[in-house]
Design a protein that fits this description.
The protein is mainly α. It has 25 helices and five strands. The protein has a five-stranded mixed beta sheet, with helices on both faces. Helix 9 packs across helix 16. The longest helix has about 35 residues. The chain is elongated, with a radius of gyration of 33 Å.
């Protein structure tokens, strides 16, 4: 059989014929050493066909398709024309990607190979490409590669800055780290200051208030009745403030030097600032989840939803997961241990922290976790693929989980999923149509200025397309959910 090697360059698709394929494959070490020598390599590999890209846009579309393992139309026509002219029946096509090879075999009917001598031949083609194709130079090939590389990278990293799930992943990781740090520092400040004022721990058990109180009181001997109002503002209770003043007068703590007090005050100030920053970060996470995944937020909450996105890697990855994977996301160790020991698999992972599972009975925890994972999967898909964010579906799905909880407890049969989803789609359509007047004026101004989006469509047209496409997407989710409810 004769071997042909497919090479995808920034300028187009190229096919190279390999002479004496069977003999070459037997001497693989010699091939590896002779790849860098153009004279030796040119005696084995010859250009058989070349299909240049028509434009930079066409090059980007073809390379994007190949990176996902899809055969683009230009490559399909090129391979069909080339192999239809060959009289030989047995031909093997060498490719770099096995996934692309499977797609080519299915579409064209040519046997593909990606191992053996093929990687070395491709390495040589890549090294000598400008000399193997007539009319090419190293400079022109480099310009084509640079232009395509820029556009390909730009297309891969392009995202909506207002709906970036990477910010959620970083903020929830920082929030978890802050929780650990604030808890550790609070314990340290309690032990440190309790040598001087041990009674304060029992009166003010809250970590944040204790740090603020320690920063304000400093030396307990200076604590007088004049500071009652300021102390009341810190602990938010008049009786507690008076108890602190009374305890300061008859405390059993040891005396402390000014230098030690200064260090305690600085550390307490740092703990207070960290606690305040943690609150601001929690508000930021809430606002970001409201923009990126409003339905998942409405269904399961800010932190649990953010942890699901973080564990999956992105909102798109979470949307691709089936409900069974979402259910045990975060409990991988327990799952593999159960599979290894042939014991019971875990019922839930990260979604265990949801309030629904805590409210369910012991017998129904597994059932409600399975149902909740199903709804989380639907909510994440809606958030990922809906162009205009809305929380209508999340609130509807949350109500469905509430109804299912009542069904487990009292036996009240919940409404069918089809009816609920129809109402949700109508509500989402009404919400999309009820655009505030200020936004309409902004759209008119942008229309007058000729503002268009990246695809060349006007903003008004794009919003109109989104409204038309919405019911189609919901119908898909609706059919899946119908099967889950009937089961």
């Amino acid at each position: 059989s004769s071997l042909y090697v497919l090479y995808e360059h920034a300028a187009g698709f190229a096919l190279f014929s390999v002479k004496e394929f069977e003999e070459v494959s037997m001497f693989l070490p010699q091939v590896e050493s002779s790849v860098t020598d153009i004279a030796k390599f040119n005696s084995i590999v010859k250009l058989a066909g070349f299909a240049p890209f028509k434009s930079a846009i066409a090059a980007l579309e073809n390379i994007n398709a190949i990176s996902e393992g899809i055969v683009p139309q230009d490559l399909l026509h090129f391979l069909d024309d080339f192999f239809s002219k060959l009289k030989k029946k047995k031909c093997t096509l060498g490719i770099a990607d096995a996934k692309l090879g499977a797609a080519i075999t299915e579409a064209v009917g040519v046997q593909c190979s990606h191992f053996g001598v093929v990687p070395e031949i491709l390495r040589g083609v890549r090294f000598h490409f400008a000399k193997l194709v007539k009319g090419f130079t190293d400079k022109s090939a480099g310009v084509a590669q640079l232009g395509l590389g820029h556009s390909y990278s730009r297309a891969k990293v392009k995202f909506n800055v207002h709906r970036s799930d990477n910010m959620i992943i970083q903020s929830i990781a920082l929030l978890d780290q802050l929780d650990k740090d604030v808890n550790t520092f609070s314990m340290r400040i309690r032990e440190w200051y309790s040598y001087h004022f041990p009674e304060l721990v029992k009166i003010v058990p809250d970590n944040y208030m204790f740090a603020k109180a320690a920063k304000f009181i400093k030396d307990r001997k200076d604590l007088t009745q004049d500071k009652h109002e300021e102390l009341e503002q810190i602990v938010m209770d008049s009786a507690k403030a008076q108890a602190i003043i009374d305890a300061g007068k008859m405390s059993m703590g040891m005396d402390i030097s000014i230098v030690d007090l200064m260090n305690i005050e600085l550390f307490a100030e740092r703990v207070v600032k960290l606690s305040e920053y943690r609150k601001r970060l929690s508000t930021y996470l809430h606002n970001k989840m409201n923009m990126v995944a409003p339905n998942l937020q409405s269904l399961i909450g800010d932190q649990v939803g953010a942890r699901l996105i973080s564990h999956a890697g992105s909102l798109t990855n979470l949307a691709k997961y089936p409900a069974s994977t979402v259910q045990i996301l975060g409990a991988e160790k327990a799952l593999f241990r159960a599979l290894k020991t042939r014991s019971n698999t875990p019922k839930y992972g990260l979604i265990y922290h949801s309030s629904f599972i805590g409210r369910a009975g012991l017998k129904n925890k597994g059932r409600i976790s399975r149902f909740l994972a199903n709804k989380c999967s639907i909510a994440s898909r809606i958030d990922c693929f809906l162009e205009q964010p809305t929380s209508v579906f999340g609130e509807t799905l949350k109500q469905q989980v509430e109804d299912r909880l009542k069904f487990y407890e009292s036996g009240d049969v919940p409404r069918k999923n089809i009816e609920v989803m129809k109402e949700a789609i109508e509500a989402a359509g009404q919400e999309a149509n009820n655009v505030p007047q200020s936004e309409k004026k902004k759209k008119k101004r942008k229309e007058a200025n000729g503002t268009i989006n990246g695809n060349g469509k006007a903003l008004e047209e794009e919003n109109g397309d989104a409204e038309v496409d919405e019911p189609k997407k919901k119908k898909k989710k609706k059919n899946k959910n119908k099967v889950a409810v009937e089961a």
